[in-house]
Amino acid sequence: DAGVIQSPRHEVTEMGQEVTLRCKPISGHNSLFWYRQTMMRGLELLIYFNNNVPIDDSGMPEDRFSAKMPNASFSTLKIQPSEPRDSAVYFCASTIYGTGFTYEQYFGPGTRLTVT
Amino acid sequence: QKEVEQNSGPLSVPEGAIASLNCTYSDRGSQSFFWYRQYSGKSPELIMSIYSNGDKEDGRFTAQLNKASQYVSLLIRDSQPSDSATYLCAGSGGGADGLTFGKGTHLIIQP
After folding, report:
1. In which band, very low, low, confident or very high, does the pLDDT at A12 lie, cut at 50, 70 and 90?
2. Does residue B96 belong to the interface with chain A, where contact is any CB pair within 8 Å?
3. Cα angle value A77/A42/B73 (rounded, 5°)
């Protein structure tokens, strides 16, 4: 079975540019999470969706960050405008939300973002 | 604020020995706990989940949870060089909530 798919795997952009990261969750999973990992702060939750609805976006650092999930198989995380401090690895994870499930989250390969 | 604390290491263990990794958490409302393994440059890989007080065993791995002490641990028996990685402890409030991660413990298995 295909795991969580993320694209692009690497992104290098200049400060001020718009960046869009993409994620396809595991088929059948209905909860999707965006995390960011840096050496200084570790792995942090940015936002998560249940059944395509955003549940908690308190981890989104600034209004420059936005996330959407237009359908069950696709989500985007957008940064506009990007800044050098946004440089990090961005992970998407998914799980099944519902009674009787374990809520184990499975991570995609990540997008390594470098903003110069 | 929810926090998960881990010793960053490195923790060095001889091959074949038991590696013991520990984690404490601040939020008494946390219900579910997870251990992930992360190799350098790779994504976190789920190893174990634990939801109830006590021990849970899966192959060479044993997770232990003590909610009264707010303490979670992971034991790796018969440690192999391939176990060398960073181990991340994470907790959640239960259900499909976001995870709060510790910063990880860097484990080195010496051949």
Report:
1. very high
2. yes
3. 125
